[in-house]
Specification:
Chain A: This is Collectrin-like domain-containing protein. The complex is a heterodimer of chains A (220) and B (617). By secondary structure, chain A is α+β, with helices and mostly antiparallel strands. Chain A has helices at 2-21, 36-40, 49-66, 104-113, 115-121, 148-184, 186-194; strands at residues 30-34, 77-83, 87-92, 129-132, 197-198, 201-202. The longest helix of chain A is centred in the last third of the chain and has 37 residues, at 148-184. Chain B has helices spanning 21-32, 35-39, 41-47, 54-79, 83-90, 95-125, 147-151, 154-163, 178-195, 200-223, 228-236, 246-259, 266-272, 280-329, 341-351, 353-358, 366-371, 377-390, 394-426, 440-452, 461-471, 475-505, 511-538, 563-592, 596-602; strands at residues 4-10, 13-16, 542-545, 557-560. Classes of the chains: A alpha+beta (220), B mainly alpha (617).
C-alpha cells in the first residue's frame, strides 16, 4: 500500500519536479529559437509535439556522443516555456539521477560538437536554429594558395607582353624590309628627290624637264 | 594604322592621316566620353533637382561647350599641328597656351591612369566567389571579424584597406603598395601597347563602343530589379527650386567643360590628322551632342541600380527591426512582414512601449537611403560594388561594370597622351640620337610617366590624387580655354577665322557661332572661372581622411591641408598657367633683340600662301 502511494506520488511529483528544473532563465538551461518559415519558406513543416520529441531525441544523441559513457534518453531532456515563435527552454538531467542537472558548460560542449548534425536533422542552419548563448563558430576563410586576382593579372600581363614583343619584332622586320627595298632602287630615289617639294606638296611621278619654266617670260 | 598622307605640313615630313571618318569621330567621342559621364553627371543630376538640372546643363552645352569644341577642332584641322604648333602659328606670344595644354595633359595622364589601375584591380578581383568586398575577413586569431571592417562596411574596408591601404593623414606617406604598383604597370602597359605602331585606331573601335553596350545591358538588367523604378522616379522628378542657386549653374558649366575634354590639346591633335576639307562644324556638334547624350543615357541604369540598392538597404533595415520585434515578443516567425510592419509596430508600441523602446529599433526610411549619393570613386568602388553584391550573378555584373569603366578610362587616356606626345613630336624635342622608328620616344615617355605616377600607389596616394584632380584638372583648364577663345576671336581675328572655316567646310559660320565666340563664350568662361576660384577660396582647403582611430569612425575625419601640401596645390594650379605669360615675355625679349623677321611668317598662315614655313623650336 505504501509502495503504491509512493509510486503515485512519484508519478505526480516527477513532472512537477521536472517543471521546477526547467523554467524560463533556468541557470543550467538554454533557450532555443527556431525560425522555420525563414529557413524553408513554402516547405516549412509544422512544429508540433512530434517535432519536440525529435528535438529531445537529437539532444539525447548529442549528449551521448559527447559523454560516450553515459546513456542519455529522451526523458533526460526536459522542455518548457514553448511559444509560437517557435522558442522554448530546455535542461538536461543526468541519466543516473533525474533530479540533477548537467551543468551548462557541458551541455554547450555537447551542442558545439554535434551542431552540424543537429542543424541538418531539422533542415536548418546556425542562423535559423539558435541556441542563445552558444555562438556558432565562424567559418574558416577559404585561403587559396594563389590569390585569384593574381591569376587574372598574370594572364592579362602575359598577353600584353606577348603583344608588345610581337609588335616590336614586326616593326623591326618591316624596317629591315624597307631598307632592303630602298637600296635596290636607290637610282629612282635620287631622281624623285630633285623635284618633289614644291609648296610642301610631294609630287608624284618624275619631273619632266621638258616643262621647265625657262620660258616663263615670253620673248617679245 | 594611320596611313601616311600625301599632304605635308612642313618641310618634307608627312603627317599621319585617319583611315576613315569613323575612326576620327570614335576617337574624339572616346576622349570626350570618360569616367565623368558615368560617375559625375548622375550625381549632379541627383543633387540638383533631377530632370531640372538638364536646363542649365544644356544651356551650358550650347553656349559654351559646342563653340569651344568647334573652335578647337577647326584650328587643329586648319593649321595641322599639335597644340604648341597651333598656338605658335596664331601668335608667337601665345605659344605658352600650347605649352600649358601640354603640361596639363601630362599631369592629368599621371593620375588618370592611376584611376584606370584601380579599375583594373577591382576587375581582377571580380573573378572570385564570393566577391572579396562582400564579407569581412576574420582577424588573425579567428575569433571574430576585423574590427575596422565591422565598424564600417565590408565594401568600405575593401576599398580603403585592401585596395588603397590608406594612411590616416597626408603627412604619413606609407610605402608603395605592391599590388597597386602591379596594377599600375598593367594599366601603363596596356596604354603603351595601344599607342605604339598606331594600333590605337583599331583599339578605339572597341573602347569607344563597348561602354554603350554595357550600359544597355545594365539598363535592361536594372529595370528588372525591385526598387529600380523608385530610383528612376527619384532621378527624373524635376525640381526647379535648386535652379535659383548659382552653384547649380556653376556646376553645370564646369561639368560640360571638363566633360568635353577641351583645352587639353588632344582634340587639336586629333583634328590635325584630318584633311583640310573636312566639315568640322558637323563633327563638333556631333561629338558634343553624343557626349551629353551619353551622360544622360548613363544616368538611367546608374539610378535604376542605385534605386535597387536603396530598396535592398531599406528591406534589410526593416528585416533587422522585424527580427528584433519577433524575438522580443515571441511572435510566430514571419508573421511580421515588410508590408504589415507598420501596423505591428504601432500595436506593439501601444501595448508595451517600454520594451519596444529598449530594442533601439532603427528608423528605416526609403528616402534616406535614396538620398545617400556619391560621385567619383565613391560611386564606382563603394556604392556600386555594394549594389552588385545583391544582384544574382554578382561576378558577371562586376566584371562587366569594371570592363566598361576600363574602356572609358582607356579611351580618355588616348586623348590625354595624344595631348602630350603630338606637341613633343612637333617640337622635335626627341633627340636625334634616338631611333624614332623603334618608338623609343613613346616608350621613354610612358616609362617616365609610370615611374612618376608611382606616387599615387603610396599609402597616401588617394589624397594626392584628389589634390591633382582638384587643382590641375580644373582652374588651369578654364584659364587655357579662356585664352584660346580670346586668341582665336580677337588676336587671330574672327574674319580670318571665318575665311578659314569657309575654306574647310564650304560655308561661313553663321551668326550664332560668331556671337558665341566673340561675346557669350568668353564671358561665360570668365564668369565661371571667377566664380569657381571664389568658391574655392571661400572654403578652407580640407580633405576627408580615413582614420580608424577617429572618434566618429566610420565617418571620415576632415583635416586641413598641411602648409607644404597647400604650397604644392598652388604650384600645381599655377605652373601650367605660368607658361602663358612666360612664353609671351620670352618672345617679347627675342623680338626686341632683333629676331623680328622670322616672327612675321608665323603671323600669316593664310591658306593661299606658301605653306613651307618651319615651326620655331
Amino acid at each position: 500500500m505504501l509502495v503504491w502511494i509512493l509510486f503515485l506520488l512519484c508519478q505526480v511529483g516527477a513532472p512537477a519536479l521536472a517543471q521546477d528544473l526547467c523554467q524560463r532563465d533556468a541557470p543550467n538551461g538554454y533557450k532555443v529559437r527556431i525560425s522555420l518559415k525563414t529557413a524553408l519558406g513554402e516547405d516549412a513543416y509544422e512544429w508540433n509535439q512530434s517535432e519536440m520529441f525529435f528535438f529531445q531525441a537529437t539532444m539525447a544523441f548529442a549528449m551521448r556522443r559527447h559523454f560516450q559513457m553515459e546513456t542519455y534518453n529522451v526523458d533526460n531532456i526536459i522542455l518548457c516555456v514553448q511559444t509560437s515563435r517557435v522558442s522554448f527552454w530546455f535542461v538536461v538531467t543526468s541519466p543516473d539521477n533525474t533530479t540533477m542537472l548537467i551543468p551548462k558548460a557541458d551541455v554547450e560542449k555537447a551542442v558545439r560538437m554535434s551542431r552540424h548534425r543537429i542543424n541538418n536533422a531539422f533542415l536548418l542552419s546556425d542562423r535559423t536554429l539558435e541556441f542563445l548563448g552558444i555562438y556558432p563558430t565562424l567559418a574558416a576563410p577559404v585561403n587559396p594558395d594563389t590569390p585569384p586576382w593574381l591569376i587574372v593579372f598574370g594572364v592579362v600581363i602575359g598577353a600584353v607582353c606577348v603583344g608588345i614583343i610581337a609588335l616590336l619584332i614586326s616593326s623591326l622586320l618591316q624596317k629591315r624590309r624597307k631598307e632592303k627595298g630602298m637600296t635596290e632602287d636607290g637610282q629612282d630615289e635620287e631622281d624623285m628627290q630633285v623635284k618633289g617639294v614644291e609648296n610642301g606638296i610631294n609630287l608624284d611621278g618624275t619631273y619632266n624637264r621638258g616643262f621647265t619654266d625657262d620660258d616663263r617670260f615670253t620673248k617679245l | 594604322m594611320p596611313e601616311e598622307g600625301m599632304e605635308n605640313s612642313k618641310g618634307g615630313e608627312e603627317r599621319p592621316k585617319w583611315n576613315n571618318k569613323a575612326e576620327y569621330l570614335l576617337t574624339c567621342i572616346g576622349f570626350a566620353v570618360g569616367l565623368g559621364n558615368v560617375w559625375r553627371f548622375p550625381y549632379l543630376c541627383q543633387i540638383y533637382g533631377g530632370g531640372a538640372f538638364l536646363i542649365p546643363y544644356l544651356i551650358a552645352l550650347v553656349f559654351q561647350g559646342l563653340p569651344l569644341l568647334y573652335l578647337e577642332l577647326a584650328i587643329g584641322q586648319r593649321l595641322r599641328m599639335g597644340s604648341i604648333g597651333v598656338w605658335n602659328s596664331i601668335s608667337p606670344y601665345l605659344g605658352g597656351v600650347g605649352v600649358a595644354s601640354m603640361v596639363v595633359s601630362l599631369c592629368v595622364s599621371l593620375f588618370y591612369n592611376t584611376i584606370v589601375a584601380w579599375v583594373l584591380w577591382y576587375l581582377f578581383n571580380s573573378f572570385q566567389e564570393p566577391l572579396p568586398w562582400s564579407q569581412c575577413p576574420l582577424n588573425h586569431n579567428n575569433t571574430g571579424y576585423v574590427e575596422e571592417c565591422v565598424e564600417s562596411t565590408p565594401v568600405n574596408y575593401f576599398w580603403y584597406r585592401k585596395t588603397l591601404n590608406i594612411t590616416p593623414n597626408m603627412e604619413t606617406s606609407g610605402s608603395l603598395q605592391w599590388w597597386m604598383v602591379v596594377s599600375l604597370a598593367t594599366a601603363w602597359s596596356i596604354v603603351y601597347i595601344c599607342f605604339i605602331r598606331g594600333s590605337r585606331p583599331s583599339a578605339v573601335y572597341v573602347t569607344a563602343t563597348f561602354p554603350y553596350l554595357v550600359l544597355t545591358i545594365f539598363l535592361v538588367r536594372a529595370l528588372t530589379l525591385p526598387g529600380s523604378s523608385e530610383g528612376l522616379i527619384y532621378l527624373f522628378t524635376p525640381d526647379v527650386r535648386p535652379l535659383s542657386n548659382p552653384q547649380v549653374w556653376l556646376d553645370a558649366a564646369t561639368q560640360i567643360f571638363f566633360s568635353l575634354s577641351v583645352a587639353f590639346g588632344g582634340l587639336i591633335s586629333f583634328s590635325s590628322y584630318n584633311s583640310q576639307k573636312n566639315n568640322c562644324e558637323r563633327d563638333a556638334v556631333l561629338v558634343g551632342v553624343i557626349n551629353s547624350a551619353t551622360s544622360i543615357y548613363a544616368s538611367i541604369p546608374i539610378f535604376a541600380i542605385l534605386g535597387f540598392k536603396a530598396h535592398t538597404n531599406y528591406v534589410t533595415c526593416l528585416n533587422g527591426n522585424i527580427l528584433a520585434l519577433t524575438n522580443e515578443f515571441d511572435i510566430s516567425d514571419m508573421n511580421i512582414t515588410v508590408e504589415n510592419y507598420e501596423q505591428w509596430f504601432d500595436s506593439l508600441n501601444g501595448t508595451h512601449p517600454s520594451r519596444v523602446s529598449d530594442l533601439n529599433l532603427k528608423t528605416c526610411d526609403l528616402q534616406t537611403f535614396l538620398d545617400q549619393s556619391a560621385s567619383g570613386t565613391g560611386l564606382a568602388f563603394i556604392v556600386f560594388t555594394e549594389a552588385v553584391i545583391s544582384m544574382p550573378g554578382s561576378q558577371v555584373w562586376a566584371v562587366l561594370f569594371f570592363i566598361m569603366l576600363f574602356s572609358l578610362g582607356l579611351s580618355s587616356m588616348f586623348g590625354n597622351l595624344e595631348g602630350v606626345l603630338t606637341p613633343l613630336h612637333d617640337l622635335k624635342l626627341v633627340p636625334k640620337w634616338m631611333p624614332n622608328e623603334l618608338f623609343t620616344g613613346k616608350t621613354l615617355i610612358c616609362l617616365v610617366l609610370f615611374l612618376v605616377s608611382l606616387i599615387f600607389t603610396l599609402g597616401s596616394g588617394n589624397y594626392w590624387l584628389e589634390i591633382f584632380n582638384s587643382y590641375v584638372g580644373s582652374v588651369p583648364l578654364l584659364i587655357i580655354a579662356f585664352f584660346e577663345i580670346i586668341a582665336v576671336a580677337y588676336i587671330y581675328g574672327i574674319g580670318r577665322f571665318s575665311d578659314d572655316l569657309e575654306f574647310m567646310t564650304g560655308h561661313r559660320p553663321n551668326i550664332f557661332w560668331k556671337v558665341c565666340w566673340l561675346v557669350i563664350s568668353p564671358l561665360m568662361l570668365f564668369v565661371v572661372l571667377v566664380a569657381y576660384v571664389a568658391v574655392q577660396a571661400q572654403t578652407h582647403p580640407t580633405y576627408p581622411a580615413w582614420n580608424p582611430d577617429y572618434v566618429n569612425f566610420p565617418d571620415t575625419e576632415v583635416l586641413p591641408y598641411p602648409d607644404w601640401v597647400f604650397a604644392i596645390c598652388v604650384l600645381l594650379s599655377s605652373v601650367p598657367v605660368i607658361f602663358i605669360p612666360l612664353v609671351a615675355i620670352y618672345r617679347l625679349i627675342c623680338c626686341m633683340s632683333g629676331r623680328h623677321s622670322e616672327d612675321r611668317l608665323h603671323n600669316d598662315p593664310n591658306p593661299y600662301a606658301n605653306e613651307g614655313y618651319v615651326v620655331e623650336s
